[in-house]
């Protein structure tokens, strides 16, 4: 894991060392905030490695470098438009970028091509020299073509470069995005092989930057003026009274105050330790850290220095959701928090800062839930395992025991309670489609109702806490392929007639060809014409695990 963290750090060093000596150079870092960043390397989520590496390396970036920060996939699941320039390129942005990265929620898709395009446009790449550093642990999932984009940016840009860091990608996966760097004269860094990365760094960033021209001798200094304060507003925020100042991960929102005391236009949003100069006037300042916030009103007067203290009256909770006692932390868990004044949802292992008071924490894994009420004092840090108490089961269906696996997308599994209600029905629990359907279920007796076309099978099973079952459901069915040239419709009937001379209708399809999975047995296939009185029928026997083909002639 250390090698991996250094690889991410080296990628950021690339943007820092290649900008030394070029005052007009600007860089935007793009961080992949898709859901796959929850995957772990040596027991630690990739997103945490990225955050720590960003924080460490950005501390060594020269103050004059203008660095921006963009992310994608951090606000919405399944959206290809979830791209945001969070920190515009500016000098001294290290703390803002670190704080922004720490607050990201990793849950979306990977529109990396569109993100690089937006970053290039934000840097005005057709007018100025521009560099983009993309850190991704996955390939394009929104239909973009990174190779074509690289050629486009190289052709239309003044001096555009894209450097790409492959976050644990395989060599073959890396080739699919390395062209973005190659086509712009940038470097592709494979962040899964430490030795190869070090060799790449020797080639790309080890050469020292050119020494700057000697500065001309300064003109004689004018007579000193009376000293003025560098900043007139230097706030401090603490978690609780008497606590240490918070300087990382927090945010400052500054608004003009309207005459009625309400918030007016936004003045600025800053991150981490903040010192600034505010014009004389009335302001509302909000100090925020995660879900905790507090605001104060100020009247700024010329010549005065203000150093207010903000107390969040909040605490920290670390929630480790587990399916059973002693099980690994579940990345699939939904962790819902209800705290004084609000609520929020996180996923997997969660660290959260919330207002002090009674906290209701509900963890859901599959259809199992566990709720705990926690009293959190201001400044307190509580770490707790929440065990939901479920078992895991994976379902697959087979046409016949030991036969072919049913891999159709039309395959369905409906989980119901085994115990019937007084009216004979059962409570519905959960459902899923396709092979390898996975369920997390509380301990109980259940029935899996497996459906594939006209074949329906009920499979009883039981689950205990901590179970990990793999259930194979035999459908005892075959495939019936029916052809009826010129037919208006095809119908499948039971072979035996009831006392009134009618057969039970099992299925109907319009057209002259139809294929269905159906339980093994004897059937009658009827060819219907649009004109009455021209129906033909044919008996057929379907054998388990076999395909039967028939043609019902006119």
From TrEMBL:
UniProt biased composition (Basic and acidic residues): 544-554
Region feature Disordered, mapped onto this chain: 208-228, 534-554
Domain of life: Bacteria
SUPFAM superfamilies: vWA-like (SSF53300)
SMART domains: VWA (SM00327)
Xref: Pfam families: VWA_2
Residue ranges of domain VWFA in the record: 26-205
Biased composition annotated in UniProt, kind: Pro residues: 209-226
Protein's UniProt name: VWA domain-containing protein
Lineage: Bacteria, Pseudomonadati, Pseudomonadota, Alphaproteobacteria, Hyphomicrobiales
